């Protein structure tokens, strides 16, 4: 987001970033904080967040990443909360999608390591908080301060913020498991994967890429090279086969042996990530705009047997999730 903003903003302004950056930094350090005096804390918000932390919940601030981290942190402090307590706070330095896109919510979960656990998106804006999250397959709670009953648009629950704790305590956690099944959800995950990886490795030193935290497991560079080559040589081949043939047989070559055979440890991880992102854009171009008839076409998979187009592409999204989990686990050891 930051790169896109700066590429558009500074040329339009007619002033190079280097000449005005100190003024912008000063504004967010000295002027922007004063806006807090005219804001009002939402009653019960601090207590709710503290309760969530006490329960061991992983809490993220999924705010539209249109502002720098400094601005977002100030806003959190105005609410009476410490931004450093949250596992993730989205801002334009580290995010690539806005909240109007389901891929934003996939990016949030990806940066959290794609947890295999219940997820709930809480928000008060049906269009930006609820519908895109629901498009990804997430359960949502509509904060509606007017009414404490009923439910928002397709929301799992709805009510005042003060009702949320009771609602969570009385809700079966299993009912909040994500369900990434629709073409929109699958494409959102696949769109987010290069962005997630880019953010996860942004500050990684060269020595981290080939390091194996566990001797028999892959290093970070091997994970990224595996994603790149699988995208180029397997996923795109499978998609072409699905699009060109009627009820085709979908082969699945064994790519697990490539790490050793192709000596991934000697490769440049950052270059491999760039190449993976390029290959993924090619893949998405093949998939976008396909109608429901195509997504329902039957096929036979070498591993999973009778299947259909949507399920095969869903396997690709699940493959992404598994390897983001793997990369996230590796980085957590440093």
Structure overview:
The protein has 13 helices and eight strands. With 334 residues, the protein is mainly alpha-helical. It has a domain at 183-331: Up-down Bundle (Four Helix Bundle (Hemerythrin (Met), subunit A)), CATH 1.20.120.450. A three-stranded parallel β-sheet has the order 3-4-5, covered by helices on one side. Strands 6-7-8 form a three-stranded mixed β-sheet. It is globular, with a radius of gyration of 22 Å. The mean pLDDT is 94.
Low confidence ranges: none
Strand portion, in percent?
5-15%
Can you name the CATH architecture of the domain at 183-331?
Answer: Up-down Bundle
The rounded Rg comes to 22 Å
- Classify the secondary structure makeup into a structural class: mainly alpha
What CATH calls the topology of the domain at 183-331 is Four Helix Bundle (Hemerythrin (Met), subunit A)
CATH class of the domain at 183-331: Mainly Alpha
What general form does the structure show?
globular
Q: What is the H-and-E element order?
A: HHHEHEHEHEEHHHEHHHEEH
- Helix content bin: 40-55%
DSSP strand tally: 8
Biggest sheet: strands side by side, in what order? 3-4-5
């Amino acid at each position: 987001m930051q790169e896109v903003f700066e590429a558009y903003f500074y040329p339009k302004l007619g002033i190079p970033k280097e000449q005005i950056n100190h003024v912008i930094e000063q504004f967010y350090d000295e002027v922007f904080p004063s806006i807090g005096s005219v804001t009002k804390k939402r009653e019960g918000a601090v207590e709710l967040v503290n309760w969530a932390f006490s329960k061991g919940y992983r809490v993220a601030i999924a705010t539209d990443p249109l502002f720098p981290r400094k601005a977002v942190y100030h806003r959190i402090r105005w609410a009476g909360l410490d931004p450093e307590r949250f596992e993730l706070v989205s801002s334009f330095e580290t995010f690539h999608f806005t909240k109007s896109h389901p891929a934003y919510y996939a990016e949030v979960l990806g940066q959290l390591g794609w947890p295999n656990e219940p997820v709930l998106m809480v928000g008060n804006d049906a269009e930006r908080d609820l519908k895109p999250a629901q498009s990804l397959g997430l359960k949502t709670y509509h904060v509606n301060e007017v009414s404490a009953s009923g439910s928002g648009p397709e929301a799992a629950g709805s009510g005042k913020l003060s009702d949320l704790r009771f609602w969570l305590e009385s809700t079966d956690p299993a009912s909040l498991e994500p369900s990434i099944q629709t073409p929109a959800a699958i494409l959102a995950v696949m769109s987010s994967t290069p962005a997630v990886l880019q953010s996860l490795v942004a500050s990684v030193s060269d020595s981290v890429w080939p390091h194996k935290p566990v001797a028999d497991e892959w290093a970070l560079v091997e994970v990224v090279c595996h994603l790149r080559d699988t995208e180029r040589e397997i996923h795109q081949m499978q998609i072409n086969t699905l699009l060109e043939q009627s009820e085709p047989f979908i082969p699945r070559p064994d790519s697990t042996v490539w790490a050793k055979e192709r000596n991934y440890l000697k490769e440049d991880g950052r270059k491999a990530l760039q190449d993976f992102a390029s290959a993924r854009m090619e893949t998405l171009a093949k998939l976008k705009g396909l109608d429901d008839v195509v997504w329902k076409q039957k096929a036979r998979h070498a591993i999973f047997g009778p299947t259909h187009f949507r399920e095969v592409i869903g396997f690709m999204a699940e493959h992404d999730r598994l390897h983001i989990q793997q990369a996230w686990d590796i980085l957590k050891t440093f």
